[in-house]
Amino acid sequence: MYAIDKKFGGNSGGKLHIETGLTADQSAIYVKIADNGIGIPESIRDRIFEPFFTTKDVGEGTGLGMSIAYNTIAKHHGKIIVESEVGEGTAFTLHIPIQQTN
Hints:
Order of helices and strands: HEEHHEE
Shape: globular
Structural class: alpha+beta
Helix content: 10-25%
Largest sheet: 4 strands, antiparallel
Strand order of the largest sheet: 1-2-4-3
């Protein structure tokens, strides 16, 4: 929602799309969350899951949300795939295995 608001500033045009399903090999479920917001520059894409990393202004966030999400998915032996294009939007696809291993 932050990325959409940054791009559209409260005006119409912002879109959030959520899709769920099974992966092609049916070994995991996926949740894909996509927007048409500002996108994530390649230069910072490798840092977005670091604790306390944020691009938001002071007082707008702690930089923990993405780190918590990443660690939660990792504890379930899953992964997060990030696709983004600056100015066009971002998609996060969470894969969580159906069969959990120890």
